[in-house]
Structures are given as structure tokens and as C-alpha cells.
Amino acid sequence: MEVRDIEAIPLSHSLPEKRGVGSARGVHTNRATTLIRLETADGLVGWGEAFAPARTVATLAQEQFADRVKGLNPHDAETFVEESYTHGYHFGRSAFTRCAVSGIDIALWDLVGKSVGAPVSELLGRRRDVLEPYASSGYITEWNQPIEEPMRAAVADGFTAAKIKIGRGIEDDYNRVSTAREILGDDATLMVDFNGNYRAKQAIRAVNELTEFNVGWVEEPVAAEDVDGLRRVTETVDVPVAAGEAHFSRFEFERLADERAVDVLQPNLGRCGGFTEARALADLAMSKNLTVRPHVWNSAVGVAAAIQFAASVPQYPHEANIPEPLLFEYDRSSNPLRSDLLVEPFDPTDGELAVPQGSGLGVEIDEAAVERFRVD
């Protein structure tokens, strides 16, 4: 079995006017990504996602990697990822390169799973069949949506955990978290995401002000590049600190782990190097006694990949005697790249998200929908 053809497909969807959503860093007025479609000589099709500016990474994938991927045996995905660092040399560790590699790697694993009739999670070593989705919600919006609205919607849909955006000032942080906790109830898990909008001392003060609300973790309290600041926050506060969505290589994640800069590693499968690198990061986290919870703000393909990966994540050291659920991020904002690309969309409601048991990514792509959002 070998890859006969590779196609990088840039996708984009513009949000309605004045309906942008985002964080303390600003709002997004469109959703975009790049899908990778690989086809083997015997007609199998594998899908992956490179989660980055669409046309940019699509061009890079075709120009830099098409010749290397054609003729490749999908079982050699790990070799391909390893060589992407050495062949690139000057730019192999760069963000866009890692995103392109991620999409190709995911598609290769999808092909392997389909060729042997098994889901990727089984190839990685599946440890669970059900995940606990958390509502990634409470965004900063162009229309100044009250935090009450998305929290009530999450409760109505049966979510038992949620994450909200903060980082616009300590008083505003307190008010948003207080309201969210009141609506979710004391038993729900509540996380907060600063999106790197504070300096270390600001973040420490903000987290300390939120102690009474029993926050599950604080995400990106400082900028991703400020590893020293992350470590200072982690060492100072009693709440777990999470980061990783803006880190792109095994080398960056290794520094986070070695310096004990975070408690929770959050690789995005469409950025970190796909399944191959994510599996290595899970092993790294286990050796450092850290938690791994994937970051997921992707299209349906990236969501499917993250689910398959999450199903394989070890829960060391307390997998048996402390039944901690594996929390899985489920974006609740409007995004047809997530909701419309599958023949059978995911259903994260009622507190559970089943891991697809079909081969490969376990999902069927609606190729007509892909064409609707294509922006070549």
C-alpha cells in the first residue's frame, strides 16, 4: 500500500456580521483550516487536518511535502514525521511546517486504520470508549453576549463541565466566573482561559481572586512564549495550569515538561505533529507525571482525530483507584466546518461523547460539504 495522491484543501467560513467570537486577545470573524486528503493506489482515502491559516498551509503542504508523500507507505508515518525535522533543517520546527506535517500524519494514520479495519485509538492503545465533553463556551463576542446565555445553554444540553474566556481585568474575571459557577452549580467542573493576556503577577493575582470558585484549571495565564512566566504561575498558585495550543513541536513541549511550567499539556492534533507526535507527548507527560488533555477548536476532522487520541491517553498514576474522567474540549460556537463536514455529526450532549468505533478516524466525510467551504 502506498500513497498515490495528496491534496491540500483550504476551507473558510465567514461568520455573520457582528457575530465574531473569541477571547481577551480579540475576536475571530471567520473559521478556517486546511484538510489533507490522501489516496492510495488501491483507492483508500485518508483525511487529516492542518489547523492553520488555510491557503498558507495548503500551499506549504503541496510545495514542501507532496513529492515526499507520494509513494509513501502509510505505515511509515512515524518516519515521515521524524524526517520532517531533518529535511526541513532551517524551518522544520516552524509553526506552519508542523501544522502541514500534522495534517499529513493524521491522514496517514487514517489510512492505516482503514487498511486494517480498526480505529486509530485501537492502534494507539485504546483505554476508554467514552469521553466527558466540556462546553468550550463563554466567549468574548462582538455583540457582548452575557455569560449567562452560553452557561444556561450548556446546562440545558447536559454538560457537566465547561470552560469560559476571561482575561480582561480582574473584576471582570471575577464577575464572569462567579456567574458561570452559579449557573453550572457546585458539582460541575469549571475551567478558565486567559488566552495569554496577562503577565505573570497579574495572572497570579487573578487566579488567587478566583479561589472560592474551585476552578479546575487555568489555561494560558500568560503568553505561550513566556515559559518562565508560566512556571512562576504554576509554582505560585494552587490551581493546575494548562497550556499547549500555541506550541508546535516536541521540543517546545519538552521544555514545558522539563521546566515544570505547566500541569496540563494541551497539544492540538492539527498543530503538534498529528498522532505520531501526540503519542510521544503522552509518553513524555506520563514520565513527568503530567496530565494531557487535547486542545480542540478544529473542524470535524480535527475533532475526530482528537477524540481518537484522547481515547488512548494514559491516566497515570491513578487510572484504577481514582476514576478521573477524561475531559474533552467541545467548541460550542457556531462553526459549520465542525458541524457540517460529517455525514453523521458528533453529539456531545448529555455529558458523554462516544469514541467512534469505525476504522481510521471512525467518521465519514461529506465531500460535497467540503467543496462548499473550499477557498482555492
TrEMBL record:
<dbReference type="InterPro" id="IPR036849">
    <property type="entry name" value="Enolase-like_C_sf"/>
</dbReference>
<feature type="domain" description="Mandelate racemase/muconate lactonizing enzyme C-terminal">
    <location>
        <begin position="148"/>
        <end position="240"/>
    </location>
</feature>
<dbReference type="Pfam" id="PF02746">
    <property type="entry name" value="MR_MLE_N"/>
</dbReference>
<dbReference type="InterPro" id="IPR013341">
    <property type="entry name" value="Mandelate_racemase_N_dom"/>
</dbReference>
<dbReference type="InterPro" id="IPR018110">
    <property type="entry name" value="Mandel_Rmase/mucon_lact_enz_CS"/>
</dbReference>
<keyword id="KW-0479">Metal-binding</keyword>
<dbReference type="InterPro" id="IPR029065">
    <property type="entry name" value="Enolase_C-like"/>
</dbReference>
<dbReference type="GO" id="GO:0000287">
    <property type="term" value="F:magnesium ion binding"/>
</dbReference>
<dbReference type="GO" id="GO:0009063">
    <property type="term" value="P:amino acid catabolic process"/>
</dbReference>
<dbReference type="GO" id="GO:0016836">
    <property type="term" value="F:hydro-lyase activity"/>
</dbReference>
<dbReference type="Pfam" id="PF13378">
    <property type="entry name" value="MR_MLE_C"/>
</dbReference>
<dbReference type="InterPro" id="IPR046945">
    <property type="entry name" value="RHMD-like"/>
</dbReference>
<dbReference type="InterPro" id="IPR013342">
    <property type="entry name" value="Mandelate_racemase_C"/>
</dbReference>
<protein>
    <submittedName>
        <fullName>Mandelate racemase</fullName>
    </submittedName>
</protein>
<keyword id="KW-0460">Magnesium</keyword>
<keyword id="KW-0614">Plasmid</keyword>
<dbReference type="InterPro" id="IPR029017">
    <property type="entry name" value="Enolase-like_N"/>
</dbReference>
<dbReference type="GO" id="GO:0016052">
    <property type="term" value="P:carbohydrate catabolic process"/>
</dbReference>
